[in-house]
């Protein structure tokens, strides 16, 4: 486990050896089922007794009382009310009986420590949400991930590690020198694993963020933090892609090289903690690698994006956030897409493409001619029209200050076309008219059986204007170039996660799971039919949960 190296005498934090979490809320209530069955038979009323469901406002931990008393912000941007809760919830509608397993959603959920409020959505300490489906019933819960950053902040009642936009406040110049030393070694970088959660091929569940040290193993049943995921190789480095490609047979990720700008493409086998290098891509422009929050793959290739929004060591050293935080926009450095063969590590294409800004790639596949030869790579992403202002719009002050103005920057399904014939240029175009999804586009998923293959459907968060954040769920049909949208006034939905029906033969035969935060402070789990995109069930939580980012599915054994 990471430790803090400087004592309080020079303004640093002391890391606790053990930080306990409290479970202050354990009330009970009876509930009834509602609505007409769509996928499953109606339950017998004798089966409709639910435990641990709130009957009154829950007790909050003391550090939150001051904030909650005067807070009128949307619950999506409000710190979670307590560190942990679990209970069976009332289901309105019917959960498909085939849906047996656990949906886990990770994301920032605590945006302050003591009286200090964080600046940015991405700063928050990780809150892991669990939705366990079994025999048409739903047990929900949440728990804080006990990273060293979170435990040290609780113990010292102040920020102790560098978060996305936050830097610990230091008492004197000596402390600043120590902070710089820790930064270069990586000791002061956060391990706050608040971005994603993946199930490895060997069954281990790992929460992740941009820093390599922020890889934390959790128990998917209890949400208990089990410890760090320690890489056993000697590849080193401080950061990696927050979104590895994970299947039952492999784990692929990118390691940006900040000293000699480029990327290592690495693979890890199930049951192993050792990453092995497939190959390296050298950057073609700019003073540093482009930000690689995510990347796509096809059946035979890894696609490495080189975005002109690039890492900035200079910004990382500053004590206060710059407009683009840890990054700099270098349009003169151009944008590129590189294609590497998974088997050999050889680069088979490296093309210049129009400038772009994306956090999340959706999927990619190989385009073939009539003889079966691969002629191009198609890679889709949530693209922000090469506009970096989306990062500033995600400041908590901006998210909380919505007054009805339409301030969400436009976005689209950006489709890269990367030729494999040696051409120096690729294309970037909209895969469909952005008006179909309100010119909002992020937080995407698709049927994982189509990873790296030609696919038809993608699911994401779109926009119902005016808005300051994606506020719809949208189903994109990439063949007909049309979209279906779900919208509820004042609701902020999180990523729609697709779970396929066992034995399904149609690509969209399954359900979408999303956690919804409501403007009145409430919240619920939502299930949509993957084909019709109509609601089939919802289950209200005892209180609304903050907005979250990415999830994974752990099927019942």
UniProtKB/TrEMBL annotation:
GO MF annotations in UniProt: carotenoid dioxygenase activity; metal ion binding
Any one Gene Ontology BP term: carotene catabolic process
Superkingdom classification of source: Eukaryota
Cofactor requirement: Fe(2+)
Residues bound to Fe cation: 243, 293, 360, 550
Gene Ontology CC: chloroplast
Classification via PANTHER family: BETA-CAROTENE DIOXYGENASE (PTHR10543), CAROTENOID ISOMEROOXYGENASE (PTHR10543:SF24)
Similarity-based family: Belongs to the carotenoid oxygenase family.
Name of this protein: Carotenoid cleavage dioxygenase 8 homolog B, chloroplastic-like
Taxonomic classification: Eukaryota, Viridiplantae, Streptophyta, Embryophyta, Tracheophyta
